[in-house]
Amino acid sequence: MRELNILLKYIGLSLMQQNQQQSSKRRKKKESKSSINQGLRYLIVLLFSTLPMSIFIYVSNYQIYKTLVSIPDVAKAFYFLTISIFSLFYVVGFVGTGMYAFSRNEDVEFLLTLPIKRNIITLYYLIVTLSSQAFTLGFFVATALAYAISIKQNVLAFIIQTIIHLVFLSSISAVLAVLFGGVTSKRYLRILNTIILLSLIFIYLGFMYFQDVGIKDLGENENFIRLLSFASSKYNILIWTYSEKLSNTMVILTVSIIALFIFWKLAGTVGFESTRGKVRERKDYFRKESYSSKMGGILWKDMKLLVRNEQFIFLILYPALFSLFMFFTSNSPIASVTPFVAIAGIYCAIESGILTANEMQYKAVVRTFPVKPKNLILPKLMIPVFINISLFIIITIVSALFGRFSSTSLIYVAISFALFILSALVGAYYSLKSPGKAKNQPFSVGATFLIEGIMLGIALGILFPMNLFISKAKLEGWKILASWGTLIGSVVTLFVLIYLYYTKLRRILIQTD
Predict the structure, then answer these.
(1) Residue 274 clears pLDDT 80, i.e. is over it
(2) What's the CA dihedral at 20, 21, 27, 33 to 10 degrees?
(3) Mean pLDDT taken over the chain
(4) DSSP 435
């Protein structure tokens, strides 16, 4: 294990590519600071980043279980449900990230030239994978501690059970990651990790909702009861570690030991190369009728980039899902409008900026194309606006299906459309004027704060007064004047900025032509 200790000390636990691709000068500086344990430093960073959310999960779960302390069977069923969900997230995330780690890169190629066993290299990357599941692990441990302390279990015995459960999940995940490593493309694995992160965010929000609703009220919900009974079923292997039957715990321990043995045997055979299936020969090298010919080559190219970039999935889905969450947890028909427009207004600029920045990476090649700059930029503006306004319309349709539709929602559609146009223009402009240094950072830090200030200021300046008027809030005297003044001023500013940034973007495109 001396080799593993050296890898952890000098390389660390980060999978981030920007940490791997460093200049020779920075590497020399790091060599002079070889006494710093990179793995330990990364663990400290992980601890401080996951601690706030873990504390919240602990407090919220503790309050929930304190409410259920008088009905221990329901408390146990609810605990089994949350543990089952976190266990699934942990396994899926662990396997996905592990498969992503088992791909050839500069670090792996270097390590393979050293006198280090392939088993050790595989184990090292599995530990790196484990560190990338810090948030899921933090949520899991916080939930377990909250249950044990609030229900007054034997905390020491419960901690041992939790450790056995985590060893079981990790051993099974490690075997699956080794078996399927390199089979799935990196793109799908990054998308999977993005979806897991989104799911954890909404579980975080769900615990906040349970605190306000009162968990006892959910006892009248038939679907929720059915879900609890399924989670507590004897067929749910994810809760066997916490079973009162010793035989179930022994089965889990046996499976864990066998899985670890299989992993160690397979670890020496990991190829670290991405595998591809057989690609059939393409007879038609040129097709007159193709998607790009129908949609336009630039538009089709940008759409493909959008689908391949996992960051887009987060930017598109998060505002929509958060809006739907607010819709179902609030009685107000406009409760979902404000957060969606405010968040999507900022994200639309990032989407436009990413598309534009990606085009500018190959500026020398793009200039050789018989395409005008405005025709290159137009799809970068159209796609984010179209996607976000479509999501807004879908949310409006969902509210109509649930009987919460209001004709005033149509006003929000028009306002949000104008906001998204401004956001796309601002994003495209600053990605050209003040580009970021990192790959997925379309703007500089200063430009990012400026964009957030512009979009949030205008969005809230329009939406808050409109919400007050639509909800028929009691406004008197100067409050009415202030509300109307803020609304009119924000609308005028919106259209003035659309014109200004359109002019600025057009001017900078002429300069780059």
Answers:
(1) no
(2) -30
(3) 73
(4) -
Q: Find the mean pLDDT for residues 382-386.
A: 89
- 199 pLDDT band (50/70/90 cuts)? low
Instruction: Supply the DSSP string of 359-403, one letter for each residue.
Output: HHTTHHHHTTSS--HHHHHHHHHHHHHHHHHHHHHHHHHHHHHTT
C-alpha torsion 196→199→200→202, nearest 10:
160
SS3 440: coil
Nearest to 189 by CA among 293, 282, 93: 93
- Which of the 8 DSSP states describes residue 216? G
Give the Cα separation of 270 and 176 in Å (integer): 12
**Number of neighbouring beta carbons within 10 Å of residue 146:** 22
Q: Has residue 83 got a pLDDT over 90?
A: no
pLDDT at residue 496 greater than cutoff 90: yes
What does the DSSP 8-state code read for residue 93?
H
Give the pair of three-digit tokens for residue 323.
Answer: 């809006």
Tokens (6 digits) for 450: 């400026």
Of the listed ranges 96-105, 152-161, 424-433, the least confidently predicted one is 96-105
Distance CA(281)–CA(284), nearest Å, equals: 9
Greater model confidence, 480 or 327 = 480
> DSSP labels for 163-195?
HHHHHHHHHHHHHHHHHHTTTS-HHHHHHHHHH
In the block, which residue shows the tokens 């221990």? 72
pLDDT at 500 over 90: yes
DSSP 94-135: HHHHHHHHSS--HHHHHHHTSS--HHHHHHHHHHHHHHHTHH
The token duo for 223 is 């679907």
- Compute the distance between CA of residue 334 and CA of residue 102 in angstroms, rounded to an integer: 47
Token couple for 478:
């100067």
Q: Tell me the C-alpha distance between 291 and 125, whole Å.
A: 40
Burial, 363: exposed, middle or buried (Cβ in 10 Å; 0-12, 13-18, 19+)?
A: exposed
pTM, two decimal places = 0.59
Query: Residue 292: its pLDDT value, please?
Result: 46
DSSP codes joined into one string, 239-299: GGGG-S-HHHHHHHHHHHHHHHHHHHHHHTT---S---PPPPPPS-S--SS-HHHHH-HHH
